[in-house]
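Researcher: Here's the sequence for the chain we discussed earlier.
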Amino acid sequence: MPISGNATPITPFKASNYISHAGAEYFDAPGIFGGYTSYSTITHNEVANLPYTGILQGWGWGTDSYAQHNQITNNYIHDVMKVLADGGGIYTLSAQPDSTISGNHLQHMYGTYGGWGIYPDEGSAYFTITGNVVRQTDKWISMWTDSIHDNIVQHNYSDTASMTNACANCTVSGNTTVTNGIWPADALTIMSNRGSNRLIKI
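Model: Thanks. This is the structure I predict for it:
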């Protein structure tokens, strides 16, 4: 579901959609694609059963653009990365000042490489990544190179401690690893407020 071109900034808003089994013929199609946008909001969507990435925001592999103030919040993303590699539940590219990834519930990310939960790829910068729940994946977050910089990653919850952090000048603190299947109340609240109002098994 594309929500932007690459020529002029726009302010797209995608909310309360259920997107499933996209990319049946073109496997590299994400569920929601943001591209070069500013002041966009992607919120309260359920994105599921995809061969590649759930939500992709950004483009350019490190180039600067007008992309800024983009919000990815309260989405339920699950059963993605079922065919391709080098993607994730939420995948970003390039600097996007004052952008936020928060309140999302990500579950069942596959892939032999890069089936990560949250994947800020090359040049991703100036994001605040907070208050997300990541379950049943290899790495809950991957910031694999120092072209990724100046992100704040705090107060997230995951059932794995596995992550990659080669990020330059990033703050990574206060994140919780749940090892006994007993999720803290704040994590349960995130899971209940995400995506559509479908019931899920915790």
